[in-house]
């Protein structure tokens, strides 16, 4: 029986799923994640196809300080728990550059292309490439497929693809790529299946995880996204600032900071972590009464709400809001604060539905429907990988 192993290397998590190929398609037989990478409370959990617990353990912060440590913990566990290497491995790769609009079978030429994009996604691209190289070493000959965060946004209109810079920069690849595309693709497919009227309308989706962005979906296609050239722009994140006046970066350069120092500051020390001075993890901030933690939460809510409202302008109106990813799915007080900023648009939450994480959390009289839709990037990756593998009979 053929199997497909799916890896989603995020900034604070390493998510994975093992699928079996049966005559009617792929079926999940194992799922899990190493979460809280770089936080005070990393954890590792995995479950079988029925949700039966295979492992659930807290890790010391020093054990999962970065992606490399997380990968070696997962690698050791898989070594003990997978009977045989999978028939194929599929990956979330954050940056695919300007031309790639679909999943690709990985070969050396593609890897060289993806390595060139490391400076555009230094927090994510190296981690995904490291897993790909490890699989090449440990299981040579096993086909690997790359699925890209940027691919779904290739449908952007030109105004959502350009920066107001001289044209030559666009030709050199300085574009608004957009990220979290696998997640938005999943949201669009869930809308089509369960809420076709919304799917055909104008939806502002908020992927709020350790990395966070918003995306405007019209008829299920991405028309505008808050993330652009790199995964730094847009709304505030766990350790990234979101929108920042480029004059600040010039000021830092003039003060003698070099590019690598500024990179570390912007990817690892800013955002909620920078504002609060304690943590970028939303769970820790919600439980923290300090004025700095409150400021971080207020900043996150205000700028996320502004970005969602701006999507309404890009789409010529707003029929629904969708919250997804770690914060979007689980942090009811954050959803409430964001929606409170959108009350002027007629957004009304039902407090009880919101606290219960119901699928529809807006009240019956809300002018705009508000939904929580758990994302599933791994399923989208599996879907694309399956197509690539079927086309070549899995060998
Ligand atoms: N119950 C919760 N309440 C508030 N925030 C949560 C909760 N569970 C997870 N989160 C937040 O979700 C974030 C992780 O989201 P996730 O989508 O898994 O991130 P990523 O894929 O970017 O690594 C964490 O930073 C954490 O703050
Ligand atoms: C693109 C990005 O920021 O991803 P993540 O949310 O997984 O960090
Ligand atoms: Mg993620």
From TrEMBL:
Positions contributing to Mg(2+) binding: 8, 377
Q: Which GO molecular function entries does the Swiss-Prot or TrEMBL record give?
A: acetate kinase activity; ATP binding; magnesium ion binding
Quote the subcellular location field of this record.
Cytoplasm
Q: How is the cofactor bound?
A: Mg(2+). Can also accept Mn(2+).
Q: Where does ATP bind?
A: 15, 207-211, 281-283, 326-330
- Listed GO cellular component terms? cytosol
The record's section on SUPFAM superfamilies has: Actin-like ATPase domain
Q: Which of UniProt's keywords are assigned here?
A: ATP-binding, Cytoplasm, Kinase, Magnesium, Metal-binding, Nucleotide-binding, Transferase
E.C. number(s) listed in UniProt: 2.7.2.1
Q: What is its main location?
A: cytoplasm
Cofactor needs: Mg(2+); Mn(2+)
Q: Which residues are catalytic?
A: 149 (proton donor/acceptor)
Pathway annotation from the record = Metabolic intermediate biosynthesis; acetyl-CoA biosynthesis; acetyl-CoA from acetate: step 1/2
Q: Which reaction does it catalyse?
A: acetate + ATP = acetyl phosphate + ADP
Q: Where is this site: Transition state stabilizer?
A: 180, 240
Pfam families recorded:
Acetate_kinase
Q: Which residues bind substrate?
A: 92
Q: Which biological process, per GO, is one annotated for this protein?
A: acetate metabolic process
* NCBIfam families to which the protein is assigned, alphabetical: ackA
Q: What does this protein do?
A: Catalyzes the formation of acetyl phosphate from acetate and ATP. Can also catalyze the reverse reaction.
Q: Which family does it belong to?
A: Belongs to the acetokinase family.
HAMAP family named in the record = Acetate_kinase
How does this chain assemble?
Homodimer.
Name of the protein in question: Acetate kinase
Annotated gene: ackA
């Amino acid at each position: 029986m053929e199997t497909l192993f799916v890896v989603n290397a995020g900034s604070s998590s390493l998510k994975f799923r093992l699928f079996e190929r049966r005559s009617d398609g792929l079926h999940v037989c194992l799922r899990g994640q190493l979460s809280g990478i770089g936080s005070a409370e990393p954890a590792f959990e995995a479950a079988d196809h029925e949700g039966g617990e295979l492992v659930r353990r807290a890790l010391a912060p020093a054990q999962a300080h970065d992606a490399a440590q997380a990968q070696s913990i997962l690698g050791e566990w898989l070594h003990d728990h997978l009977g045989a290497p999978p028939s194929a491995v599929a990956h979330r790769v954050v940056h695919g550059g300007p031309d790639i609009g679909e999943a690709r079978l990985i070969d050396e030429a593609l890897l060289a292309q993806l390595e060139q994009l490391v400076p555009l996604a230094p927090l994510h691209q190296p981690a995904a490439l490291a897993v790909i190289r490890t699989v090449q070493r440990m299981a040579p000959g096993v086909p690997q497929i790359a699925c890209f965060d940027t691919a779904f946004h290739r449908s952007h209109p030109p105004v959502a693809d350009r920066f107001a810079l001289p044209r030559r920069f666009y030709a050199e690849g300085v574009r608004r790529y957009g990220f979290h595309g696998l997640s938005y693709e999943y949201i669009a497919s869930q809308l089509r299946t369960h809420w076709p009227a919304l799917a055909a309308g104008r939806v502002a989706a908020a992927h709020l995880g350790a990395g966070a962005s918003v995306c405007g979906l019209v008829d299920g296609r991405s028309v505008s996204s808050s993330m652009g050239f790199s995964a730094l722009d847009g709304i505030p994140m766990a350790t990234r600032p979101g929108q920042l006046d480029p004059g600040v970066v010039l000021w830092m350069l003039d003060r003698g900071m070099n590019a690598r120092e500024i990179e570390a500051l912007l990817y690892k020390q800013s955002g909620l972590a920078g504002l609060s001075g304690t943590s970028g993890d939303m769970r820790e901030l919600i439980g923290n009464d300090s004025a700095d933690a409150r400021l971080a939460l207020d900043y996150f809510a205000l700028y996320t709400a502004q970005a969602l409202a701006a999507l309404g302008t890009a789409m010529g109106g707003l029929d629904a809001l969708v919250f997804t990813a770690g914060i979007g799915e689980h942090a009811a007080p954050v959803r409430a604060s964001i929606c409170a900023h959108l009350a002027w648009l007629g957004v009304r939450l039902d407090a009880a539905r919101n606290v219960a994480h119901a699928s529809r959390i807006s009240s019956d009289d809300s002018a705009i429907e508000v939904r929580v839709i758990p994302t599933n990037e791994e399923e989208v990756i599996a879907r694309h990988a399956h197509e690539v593998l079927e086309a070549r009979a899995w060998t």
